[in-house]
Amino acid sequence: MGTGFSVDTPLKVAKYGISSVVSIMDDELAEQMREVHSRKHDLEFVAISERSEDKRARRITAYLNLINDLVAKQVLELQNSSFEAGSEITRYFEMLPDSALKDSYHEMLGLPTQEQKLEMQETLRAQAIPGSIDVNIMTKLDRDAYGKNNVKLAPEFADAMAALRGFANSALRSSIIFSAGINRRLYAYLTTFEDFFPDDSGEMRKLITLKVSDYRSAIIQGKYLAKRGLWVSEYRIESGLNCGGHAFATDGHLLGPIMEEFVQKNSEMAETLNKTYSAALESLDRAPIERPHKYRVTVQGGIGTFEEQQLLFERYGIDRVGWATPFLLVPEVTNVDEAHLAKLCAATAEDVHLTDHSPLGVPFWSLENSASEKTRLARIERDKPGSPCPKGFLVSNTEFTTVPICRASRVYQKRKIREIDAGGHSCEEAAALREKTLRKSCLCLDLTGGAIIKHNIKSKAQSAVCCGPNIVNFSKIVTLEEMIDHIYGRLSLITNPDRPHMFIRELSLYVEYFRTEVQTASDEFTDRMTKRFLEFKHNLIVGIDHYRELAERFNQEQRERFDAALDSLYEEIDSIYAGIEIAMSEARLATSLAD
Q1: End-to-end CA separation in angstroms for the chain
Q2: Among candidate residues 510, 544, 451, 24, the one with its CA nearest the CA of residue 302
Q3: Residue 317: how many CA atoms within 13 Å on its side-chain side?
Q4: Which one of 249, 252, 271, 311 has the minimum C-beta count within 10 Å?
C-alpha cells in the first residue's frame, strides 16, 4: 500500500484476527512511529541515532518488537473483555465471516442460562487469535550503503539486506513478503538466519511469501529458494496492472489464465518443490521433514465485491485474497490525512492514472491531484525542479555520479536538463526529453505523508497516494465494520453503478497498455517488436477465450454484460494489431522501393 499507509495498521486490526503488511524499507519512519506509539502508551523511548552502528536494522527490529508487544497486550485485553454490546471481544466475533467459529458464537448467545454461556465463552476466548503482522521488502530497493569518503560498506548494510536483518532479529512469528522479483544476494542472506529453517517439529518461526506475476515466476523463485533449504509458504499472485503502487505489467498474461495455470500444475509444483527442498535439507545436514510442506496460493489486485472474491475461491481454489485500496477510505485502519481522504472520495478515472512518476522507471499508479504532485509542478514553475532527496531509498542512476542518485532528485534533474539543452535536439525533441525527466516524483518521502501528517510528525513530506484504479468505485469514508461487511457480502459499499467486473477492468487496462506500447514504438517497428506484439495479442485473446467459458457461471444479465465487454475489447485488440501490420507493410514497401 505504500510506505506510510499501513505502517501501524497491525495496531488497529491484528487484535480482530485481521492480517496486514508493514513496509520495512524506511527505517526513519519506523523510528518516528516507534516514538509516537511509545509516547502514546507511556513507554520509555530511547532513540537509535543516525550515527548508531547498524542503525537501520536495529530501528526496524525495535519497531517490530514494539508492535508485537502492543498487539499481544491488546489481544489479552480483548480475550478478557466481557461479551456485551460494543466490547472488543464482541466486535471480534461479530466481524467474522460465516464459519464454524461464528456459529459457535451464535450458539453461545442462544444458550438458556448464564452459567452455560460463561462456560462456552471461555472456549471462545481462546479462539480469538490475532492476525499476522507481516512485513514487506521491495527487492529492487537495495541501495548499497556508503561510509566516510564514499567508501562502499559490506553488502549486508545495503537497504534490503539490513531491513531483512531487522525482521529476522525481531520477535515476530510471521511472514516476510518479497515483491518485484529475485534479488539473489538478498535470498542468499536468508540462509544466515535460523528462523527461516524448520525446527525439530518441522515448523518455521518466520515464513517466506513471494509476490509473483505468474506461474513461471513462482516456480523459478520457489526452486531457487528450495535449493537452499528455504520453503516458500505463500505465492501471492498480483494483477500486473489492476493494482496499487508500482505496476509490473506482463506481456498480456491475464489474472484468470494465470490462476488457471496454478490450478493445473499445483500437484506438479508441490512435488517438485518438496523434492528439491528435502534434498537441500539433507545436504545441509538438517533433519528431514516428516511430511511434505504445503503452500498457499493467494491473489490480490482489483477485487471489489464479495461475488468476485467467492469466484476466486470456488473456481480457482485460491486460499486467500488481499484487499488494499478500499481500505484507504477506512481512517481507523490506514493513514490518510483528511485532505486526501476527501480527494479519494471524490476521485474519478480522470484523477487516478498509471504514470511514470517512479524514479525506478516502473509504471506507478498515482492520485494526480495529490499534494505531492502539486509540489512537483510548483518546483518546475519556480525553475527549481526536483526534490532535495532527503531519504534516497530510490537511488539507482549513475549517469553523472559514481555513487548512485535518484532521478527525482534536484541534483539529477538539473544535470539532465543541462545535458538535454546542450544535446543539439530539435525544440520538439528537447521538450519531450525535458518532460520525461521532470515527471519523476519524490516517492520515498511523500508516500510517508499520510502517516506523518496524521501523527503530527515534523517533516517536509507532502502526501502522495498510490491507490489502485479500484478506488473510483468507492466514494465515502467508512468504518472497519462496514468494510468487513462489504468484503463478506453483508452490505455493498460500491458507489459506481457501472463498475466493470475485476477481470474486465484488468483486460481493459491491458488493452490500453498495449495501445500505448504500440504507439511508443510506431516510429521504429522492427521484426522483434512485431513478434512481441503478436505474442501480447495472443495472450490477451487466450484470456478472452478463458473468460468466455467463465461467463457461463454468471446469471443471464451478468453474462450478457460480461460478453459484450469481451466483444468490444476483442475488437480493440484487433484494431491495434491491424495498425501494426499496416505500418510494417508500409515499411517493407518503402525499403523495397529504396532498393
Answers
A1: 56
A2: 510
A3: 12
A4: 271
CA nearest to 197, candidates 65, 69, 296, 285:
285
Calpha distance 582→590 (Å, rounded): 12
Lookup: cell for 159: 537497504
Rounded Cα–Cα distance for residues 306 and 494 (Å): 11
DSSP 8-state class, residue 435: H
- The residues that bridge with 322 in the sheet, in sequence order, are 300
Q: Report yes or no: 448 and 366 within 8 Å, Cβ to Cβ.
A: no
Distance CA 145, CA 56 (A): 11
Q: Which amino acid is at 431?
A: A
**DSSP code string of 552-594:** GGS-HHHHHHHHHHHHHHHHHHHHHHHHHHHHHHHHHHHHHHH
> In the chain, where are the structural domains located?
10-325, 336-476, 502-594
Distance CA 530, CA 536 (A): 10
Distance CA 450, CA 465 (A): 8
Three-class secondary structure of residue 464 per DSSP: coil
Query: What is Dmax (Cα atoms) for the chain?
Result: 98
- Residue 402's alpha-carbon distances to 158, 323, 408, 505, 532, in angstroms, are 16, 41, 17, 43, 35
The one-letter code for the residue type at 159 is: D
CA–CA dist 271, 273 (Å, integer): 6
| Residue-by-residue pLDDT tens, the chain, 595 positions | 679 999 999 999 999 999 999 999 999 999 999 999 999 999 999 999 999 999 999 999 999 999 999 999 999 999 999 999 999 999 999 999 999 999 999 999 999 999 999 999 999 999 999 999 999 999 999 999 998 888 999 999 999 999 999 999 999 999 999 998 899 999 999 999 999 999 989 999 999 999 999 999 999 999 999 999 999 999 999 999 999 999 999 999 999 999 999 999 999 999 999 999 999 999 999 998 888 999 999 999 999 999 999 999 999 999 999 999 999 999 999 999 999 999 999 999 999 999 999 999 999 999 999 999 999 999 999 999 999 999 999 999 999 999 999 999 999 999 999 999 999 999 999 999 999 999 999 999 999 999 999 999 999 999 999 999 999 999 999 999 999 999 999 999 999 999 999 999 999 999 999 999 998 887 777 888 889 999 999 999 999 999 999 999 999 999 999 999 999 999 999 999 888 877 776 666 555 556 5
Query: Residue 549 is placed in which grid cell?
Result: 467459458
**DSSP β-bridge partners for residue 21:** 134
Determine the Cα–Cα distance for residues 189 and 57; give it in Å rounded to an integer: 14
DSSP letter string, 503-536? HHHHHHHHHHHHHHHHHHHGGG--HHHHHHHHHH
Q: With helix as H, strand as E and coil as C, how does 157-214 read?
A: HCHHHHHHHHHHCCCCCCEEEEECCCCHHHHHHHCCCHHHCCCCCCCCCCEEEEEECC
Extract the C-alpha cell encoding 368: 494526480
- Cα atoms found within 13 Å of the Cα of residue 249, Cβ hemisphere only: 24
Rg of the chain over all Cα atoms, to the nearest angstrom: 26
CA distances to 10, 133, 180, 409, 580 from 383, in Å:
42, 44, 34, 14, 40
- At how many degrees (to 10) do helices 114-126 and 88-95 cross? 70
